[in-house]
TrEMBL record:
Region (Disordered): 1-22, 305-335, 393-443
Acidic residues compositional bias, start-end: 305-317
Protein name: Uncharacterized protein
Membrane-traversing stretches: none
Domain of life: Eukaryota
UniProt biased composition (Gly residues): 1-20, 421-432
Amino acid sequence: MAKEPGGGGGGGSVDVGGGEPLPYLAPDDSQEFVQMADLFIVLPQEGSQGLQERLPLHSQVLSRSCAAVAQMLASLADERSGAACSPAHPLDISTCFAGCSRPATLLFLACAYNPDAAPARLQAALEGNSGGLPALTGMLALAHRLDAGRLLNAALDWAHERRDEVYSQHPTLWLSTAAALQLDGLRGRLAAWAVSRLQEGPAAAATLLQKLDFAVLPPDTAAMLLDGLAAAAVAPPSSAAYAGWGGPGSLCQRVAALEAEAAAAEAAEAAAAQEGGGLDALFEAQQEQAVEDWDAGWDEADEADLDLEGDDGDWDDGLPAHLFDGAHPAEGPFEGLLPELLEGVQLEDGEEQAAAAAADWPDEFEAWEQQAAAAQEAPADAGGWGEEFEAWEQQQAQQAAGQEAAGAADEAPAWEQQLAGDGGGDAGGGAAGPAVGNGNAAT
């Protein structure tokens, strides 16, 4: 930190002994980071007359937070055809902070350099450790001037979250600041809070009225509060309604219009509910009637089964067989559900068919028992048939062997005779041969 005797501007600065840390830097900002500062401002030294402090700043930090500073540096860079500032030639931007108190300026710089610590810094300022409420409202004014939207909105949200603590300290100062900076959103929040406090009871209203100085407030702000208080007798206006306040009486008119819209919506909802309730009741009645018809149909089926002997009229699944034998009731649980399938079918025909089926059932069961008994005897018959077939095969084999032996006996004499005849012929020929040969020889 450096001090300068009198005047503002550049040279002649001297180092402060002991190297006091800059109050707006983050805890982890190093000395090397401080030496890279390419901007500076000059502020009056607190508690000293004629002394000023030169505070080093960084263009990257302020350009990120403040759109006005970024535009100024970009314009200077274009004019100079190069960098607008550098650590060797820092730029004085004290005019951007002109008119702001030292506590408000330091609070703004602390929030810009370390946004995460902004709530703690704002709380410390509110408690009076860093300038009190004037420092807080001055910080809002500086953020609004430098177009630091994120810092401004963060501070406003923090204040509204603690409105009973923050606004109640000096409601007149808050309302005046909102009107001066033309922060309609803040003014709407303040007005809605003030009117709600006035409605809490005599004690709360008296405490707030002691702090509200209507003579200091802008005329439209005072009129807005009175209009809101009158409208709140019917329905408290929202903060958005205050932010869009259109003059005396506008809030009462707005509340009346909202009440009319709400009444119309409630009437429409009631009519829709009544209509929907009638349809629901009709549907429930139809469902109940269908259940009753279904139960009646099954009761009739059970009564028909009781006339039969035992449970012969039921299948294994427990359902009466005659219900699946073409007997479909024309009335009962199917009425109104499947008319296209039940058209032309009469309940009386189904009962007659069921009775006929029940009468024929004993004969069919007796025939089935005979068939089952015959099927049980089939294995024994099959075993005897096998033995008979084996005996028949043996008999056939014996007959074939006898016929073969008889044929062989008949053929044996004929074969022997044939062999004898063949032997005689051969002997005669043998005797004549030489004779013929001799005759030829003699000749």
